Amino acid sequence: MHRNGFAKGHLGILLLSYLPLATLLNPTCNPGKPGMLNVHFVCHTHDDVGWLKTVDQYYYGAKSSIQRAGVQYILDSVVSALLEDPTRKFIYVESAFFFRWWDEQTPELQEKVKMLVDEGRLEFINGGWCMNDEGAGHYNAIIDQMTLGLSKINETFGSGARPTVAWQIDPFGHSREQASLFAQMGFDGLFFGRLDHDDKSNRWANKELEMVWEASANLGKDAWLFTGVLPNGYGPPSGFCFDILCNDDPIMDDPRLREYNVDNRVEQFIKAAQTQAEGYAANHIIMTMGEDFNYQSSEMWYKNLDKLIRYVNARQQNGSNVNVFYSTPSCYLDALNKANMTWPTKTDDFFPYASNNHSYWTGYFTSRPTLKGFVRQSNNFLQAVKQISSLLEMGQDPRLERLKNAMGVMQHHDAITGTAKQAVTDDYYARLTEGVTESFNLVAEAYGKLQPSVPEAEAKVTPVFCPLLNESSCTLSETSPSFIVTLYNPLGKPRMRYPVRVPVPKDIAYKVTDHQGNAVASQLVPVPENVLNLPGRKSSAEFELVFIADIIPPLGFTQFFVQRTENRLFYKTQQSKIIVPQTEEELTVKFKESLLLVFDKTTHLLNAIGIEEGGEMKTLKVNQTYLWYAGMPGNNVGEKNRASGAYIFRPNGTSPFTIADKVNITIIQGDVVTEIHQTWSSWMSQVMRIYDGDLLSIEMEWLAGPIPVDDHIGKEIINRIVWGDTSTGGTFYTDSNGREILQRIKDYRETWTLNNQEPVAGNYYPVNSRLMILGKNGFMAALLSDRSQGGTSLDDGHMELMIHRRLLHDDSFGVGEALNEEAFGEGLVVRGKHHLIFSDLAPPGCDFGCLQRSLGERVMMPPIMSFMSTTLPQQTWKETYNTQWSGLQQSLPLNVHLLTLEPWLDGTLLLRLEHMYELEESNPHSKPATVDLKDMFSSLEVISAEEMNLAANQLKKDGKQYHWAVGTSHPSTNDIDSITGSRYGDAVDDGFTITLQPMEIRTFVLMVKKSTKLH
Ligand SMILES: [Zn+2]
Question: Euclidean distance between the first and final Cα of the chain, in Å?
Fold first, then answer.
């Protein structure tokens, strides 16, 4: 039954099914025995894609002194154990490891492995490149990493091997969006190991460890997923670990032995099974027989489990009702479904995760912020490279694959989380840097293809990407007297009024002209002192040349010509006006007469915002500053001695400390941008700025570090904004993996009574893109971030995001190192951005929902900037080159996000379009959107479009999920179900016009040909 998705066959899907009929055979699940307690043994290994050792070291089993773990031996050993006995089963999760091993096997062995897969003896579970983190992962990257692994399984083993169960046994808390994505990927169920300890005890007592998760407030039953909490983390019951890494006794079954232990061991086991059954509602239970990197010598496990099965089941003749057998999660799920029971439901998420009263795993939401920022930037870059490769029909280039693989590895629950050892983190950086660098070359090649073939050598000049723009440094722009700036916009809609910042040396003026040769206003803005003093910074840039790119076309680029000029008069006009307040007076910075920022006369901190409404100035009281929590020291002996560390956030006390009573302030004004530079200390500063863009926001570019620790106190830095006169009653909102918004209530959990003994850490939630509050009279505010962070609202009107952490103690959850990042012999420095918005900033035709979603999309996917040095005069450049180009014929609707465009199998393209609004979130935009696929692209004509599930490993029409009866059906989701219609009802409409409902993602495989229209 659980395999009926392919029992009907997928022979029609040429793209997916390469295998003969044999793959489509229905493997058998042991159905168990009615009236008995049926125990499903699930033999598994948990193989981290990097943690204490690098992914390569784990694969080969290097550095055994750190951890005895070698994945190649696990797969060797398991496959031979499975081939020896057809009753044995095994599941495997991480495609990043599996396909390395697969590529090393002989064709003969590969055939045998295919047989094991076909017969359901080796089953792929989850099947992503890794088992991704759910707290710090962004949905775009999660979908990509799942697609990467699942497509490899499809290509290699055919659609019959499609994983149907999601297996998130180790991630530190579980997001609702992840469950929703799994459901949309066609998974039938999800199992995990970690949830709040009190939540687990309650569920155990109420037999509610298994439930139906109604995982979206918008998508109805399309996002329902059966979810089970595993009984024992993901390990075996106590006393029954037979691995070479374990110390439990084997089954000693020769009756002549003095140490014969069968009776004893069988009784122990039956007791363990009965104890476990107390927490579960059905007469089927699952036992995870495995642990981290288990089965390197798998005969130890199998030999003892074989015996255990034989001896335990033999007791049935004496009246025992325990029946045990080899199984898999999908067979277990099938048995639960067949039990025809009614299940409880769940509509919130499983954050934050506390493993005891003082161990909230909320530190990792922020740990290693530079890594988190780099991953987010790389995601944007990967999307752009995939788009460009698609539009120019460059196919699945190995350079692109490298970046995809690196990004897949980065989503692992010890990678993006910042919970790997430093040496492993260095390896992650190196991997991602390699991937990005190779993809740069691919993009450079693509830009070349878009240029006309000119005989001059100039045409061969390749663009340079400046990876150190985040420290205001770029060798080319600093040294070249004349250069071209190319901006590629990865959004499916034009990017209007985008601020461009180019690092340049001092005392030099530059003229900027746009793609048509028109002069563009520009301004020279000094680089802040703390940036100039960055450890390791090697740059002559003391200024940034700032100008506005009026319009960058969708999936396209535009170019600017930048040239040094000796004109001193021009230089004067380009200079910013710099104001350093001399007296103690309240500072008011005006922006276009309609917006004022007011800074306190003593502290120089923001204390009010004035905004013009209906001809009058309205004042909003708001304070903003950076503060720090002292990280709890501790030896981790007993709950109360837990230290704040890579996983755990545990402040020593509930109030954060101030960095300085008064900040130094400089105001920089000019035609293009107004900036307020504030310095708290040598290690904390910020630039607050407002551009004259088409959406207003107050940008806060923060620079934190090196965090001083010579006082032996670890520090965790926050940006805190406090709105006065705003009653939020402990309620705030955070995004789930960057998509749907969840309500959070201080010191409250929806499904159990919280006894919060960590008043700060227990209220921290993952923020992947935004934290919002809703005040009186419809006032709304949001703080958007450029990377994943932890955040909360601990008091009325508060918004708080943690930006950096430097700690001196390990929290004793395995990593064995304090989170004390250094670079250039000092504490690591991080530069990032927050965007502050509030309802009054919404422009005409755009409400707050529209403001936060549109800005969120822009923050997530800024234009990709590259540089080319040139000796051509501006006029020749303009006449010679293609200075503006778009891959789209027209903009996508404003409420549609182009999520994926990537080269797919056999010259096809994979396209995902997403409705980026929730129901009722925005008056103008929460309506269905339609897109015409046929004429979407400028250079490609779409010949056919096949709709797939979200993972693109099954035709959408072939998707079929189990039916589950639920106890308390959530009323709103039922309503939604009738609004959006059934999951499988929306085929591609007549022609190529498709409709998207709020929050819907639709995935298509497109066959395309070069468009004749434009050539
Ligand atoms: Zn793990």
Answer: 53
Q: By three-state DSSP, how is residue 236 classified?
A: coil
* Ordered alpha helix ranges (H), 707-847: none
Handedness of CA 756, 759, 761, 762 (dihedral sign): positive
pTM for the model: 0.95
| Cα 133 to middle of ligand 1, angstroms | 9
pLDDT at 975 over 50: no
Point out which residues pair with 689 in neighbouring strands: 675, 699
Q: How far is the CA of 900 from the centre of ligand 1 (A)?
A: 28
Task: Provide the 8-state DSSP code for 62.
Answer: -
The residue annotated as part of the active site, out of 118, 144, 170, 222, is 170
Tokens 């050892």 belong to residue:
421
User: Region 170-177: what's the mean pLDDT?
Assistant: 98
Q: What is the pLDDT of residue 28?
A: 75
Contact predicate 530/682, CB 8 Å: yes
733-754 pLDDT, tens per residue?
A: 999 999 999 999 999 999 999 9
Tokens at 13, concatenated: 């899907």
**Other residues' Cβ atoms within 10 Å of the Cβ of residue 93:** 26
Which tokens sit at 445?
């090649």
Match 């709020």 to its residue by tokens.
998
Strand (E) positions, 646-714? 657-658, 664-669, 673-681, 684-691, 698-704
Ligand 1 center to residue 63 CA distance, Å? 18
- Concerning whether 170 is annotated as a catalytic residue, the answer is yes
Confidence of residue 967 (pLDDT cuts 50, 70, 90): confident
Spatial contact of 564 and 688, defined as CB atoms under 8 Å apart: no
> DSSP secondary-structure letter at 161?
G
Contact 715, 805 (CB under 8 A): yes
Cα separation, 951 vs 246, in Å, equals 37
Strands (E), 853-1000: 864-869, 884-886, 896-903, 909-915, 929-932, 940-948, 965-966, 993-996
Question: 500 near 865, Cβ under 8 Å?
Answer: yes
- The pLDDT score that the predictor gives to residue 990 is 60
What's CA 272's distance to the chain center, in Å?
A: 38
| 873 C-alpha to ligand 1 centroid (Å) | 57
Beta strands per DSSP E along 710-863: 715-723, 731-735, 741-745, 765-767, 770-774, 780-785, 789-792, 798-806, 822-823, 826-827, 830-838
Question: Ligand 1 centre and the CA of 80: distance in Å?
Answer: 25
Question: From ligand 1's centre to the CA of 696, what distance in Å?
Answer: 42
β-pair partners for 132: 412
Over the stretch 888-908, which tens digit does the pLDDT of each residue have?
999 999 999 999 999 999 999
pLDDT at 458 over 70: no
Q: Judge whether residue 222 has pLDDT over 90.
A: yes
- The tens digit of pLDDT for each residue in 829-851 reads 999 999 999 999 998 899 999 99
Q: Which residues pair with 831 in a beta bridge?
A: 703
697-703-705 Cα angle (round to 5) = 155
Q: Taking residues 325-344, what's their average pLDDT? A: 96
User: Token pair for residue 690?
Assistant: 């407002």
CA 230 – CA 232 distance, rounded (Å): 6
* CB-CB neighbours of 974 under 10 Å: 13
CA of 637 to the centre of ligand 1 (A): 23
Percent of the chain with pLDDT over 90: 86
Q: Is the pLDDT confidence value at 6 over 80?
A: no
> How would residue 21 be classed by pLDDT, with cut points 50, 70 and 90?
very low
What dihedral do alpha carbons 472, 428, 446, 139 form, nearest 10°? Answer: -90
**Angstrom distance (rounded) from CA 410 to CA 860:** 17
State residue 726's pLDDT score: 86
The CA distance from 492 to 373, in Å, is 23
Residues 6+ away with beta carbon under 8 Å from 920: 926
Q: Residue 989's pLDDT is what?
A: 59
CA torsion through residues 511, 512, 515, 520, sign: negative
**Distance of CA 235 from the midpoint of ligand 1 (Å):** 12
Residue 245: in which H helix or E strand, if any? none
